[in-house]
TrEMBL record:
Cited Pfam families: Glyco_hydro_1
Keyword check for Hydrolase: yes
Keyword Hydrolase on entry: yes
Record InterPro entries: GH, Glyco_hydro_1
Keywords: Glycosidase, Hydrolase
Name used for this protein in its record: Beta-glucosidase
Length: 419
């Protein structure tokens, strides 16, 4: 079988996030909300995967798969656990992580905020506070000053549109929305704050306010990073389902795109790339969403490997800049589904690239099963299992499947660098 060629400098990676795998992120807003009563979080993150401790061995796993990129987040709450107090130890740690990537031939892809922020920031108004853009820009500046010269590209914010996507698709029941508001109100009372906020538990009535706040923060971060290193490729990553329509469903599909994605795709016109994070295809009919026949993933939608290519195509059509697939995966406890899904999705992506859509790289979510936010440890998306007692990582068959498809493209079908 003949496959399209990809550029020799195409990034093949895995994506991770600090709070979800490092463990004991005790100065963070999410940690505080996990321990608030009531809490929307199914369980506390606790030690997560002990990734903060086992980072070197985890990088060995990434390199062992034949990859050339590693996406991770720098936990702001570790770097600035109290307002104005910067942890030298945390900055040293993340610098070692960057250098560890380079030693293993992995391009460091850094996320400045993967949902989480310091507890003090959340209690002081979170992202909607007047000084939030300046505070976030300070964090981005200190990180870029420390090791920005050695990273390959950077993401300012991770999925600032996630809550809009969940609400537009009715992914959470009404009782979850009520519990979210009760949890945030309890956190505000506990901290003596007028309001407690966090990036991935936003009440439905505050979506527009947070979108405006995230936009200001993104722009401030971009300015700060570019002032340090003008040539560093930088963008924002958004959650983007592949929205398709059967006859009569076009108006509903277009309305969903306008409400959930288009603001950020237009904003990305001022960036170097748009990060796309895709997990499913949504089919729109004249009367609402349509669920086609077929095997389903853990999110309840039909497994569709071509969804990534469709999402990437739309993102580039609107944004007009190259795409970086910062996350793509499948929620399932059946790893045979994942092992079949990855090569099929990558082949469809390669065909989309061959058709003319510029894509800089692909990062699979995620290296290992980890803390999946409000779902706790009940959702599996990793290429490796993690023993919750010993924290030993064990590769699943999907790890080999991903390594095989990367080898096929890197070794057999690479072409020269981009011009």
């Amino acid at each position: 079988m003949t496959h399209p060629r990809l550029p020799a400098d195409f990034l093949w990676g895995v994506a991770t996030a600090g709070h979800q795998n490092e463990g004991d992120n005790t100065a963070g807003d999410t940690w505080f909300l996990e321990h608030t009563t009531p809490s929307l979080f199914r369980e506390p993150s606790g030690p997560a995967c002990r990734g903060y401790e086992h980072w070197a061995a985890d990088l060995d796993l990434v390199a062992g798969l034949g990859l050339n990129a590693f996406r991770f987040s720098v936990e702001w709450a570790r770097v600035e656990p109290e307002r104005g107090i910067v942890s030298a130890e945390a900055l040293d740690h993340y610098e070692r992580l960057v250098d560890g990537c380079l030693e293993r031939g992995l391009a460091p892809v850094v996320t400045f905020s993967h949902f989480t922020a310091p507890h003090w920031f959340a209690a002081a108004g979170s992202w909607t506070a007047a000084d939030a853009p300046a505070r976030f820009a300070e964090q981005c500046d200190r990180v870029t000053a420390r090791f920005g010269d050695r990273i390959a590209c950077a993401v300012t914010l991770n999925e600032p549109n996630l809550e809009q996507l969940l609400q537009a698709g009715a992914k959470l029941p009404p009782e979850a929305e009520r519990l979210k508001e009760e949890m945030l109100a309890a956190a505000a009372r506990a901290t003596g704050s007028p309001g407690y906020g966090s990036a991935n538990v936003i009440p439905a009535g505050r979506q527009e306010e947070f979108q405006e706040a995230f936009t200001r923060a993104h722009r401030a971060a971009r300015e700060a990073v570019k002032a340090r290193r003008a040539d560093l490729p930088l963008g924002v990553s958004i959650a983007l389902a592949d929205e398709v329509a059967v006859p009569g469903g076009e108006e509903r599909r277009n309305a969903k795109r306008a409400a959930v994605y288009d603001h950020w795709l237009r904003e990305a016109r001022h960036d170097d790339f748009i990060g796309v994070q895709n997990y499913e295809r949504i089919v729109h009919g004249p009367d609402g969403e349509v669920l086609p026949d077929g095997e389903r993933n853990g999110m309840g939608t039909v497994i569709e490997p071509a969804s990534l290519a469709g999402a990437v195509r739309y993102a580039h059509e609107v944004a007009g800049v190259p795409v970086l697939v910062t996350e793509h995966g499948i929620q399932t406890a059946d790893d045979t589904q994942r092992a079949a899904f990855i090569p099929a999705a990558v082949d469809a992506l390669a065909a989309e690239i061959a058709a003319g859509t510029p894509v800089l790289g692909y990062c699979h979510w995620t290296l290992m099963d980890n803390f999946e936010w409000i779902f706790g440890y009940g959702a599996q998306l990793g290429l490796h299992e993690v023993d919750r007692t010993t924290f030993r990582r064990r590769p699943k068959p999907s790890a080999a499947a991903y390594a095989d498809v990367v080898r096929r493209y890197r070794d057999g079908l690479a072409q020269g660098p981009r011009t």
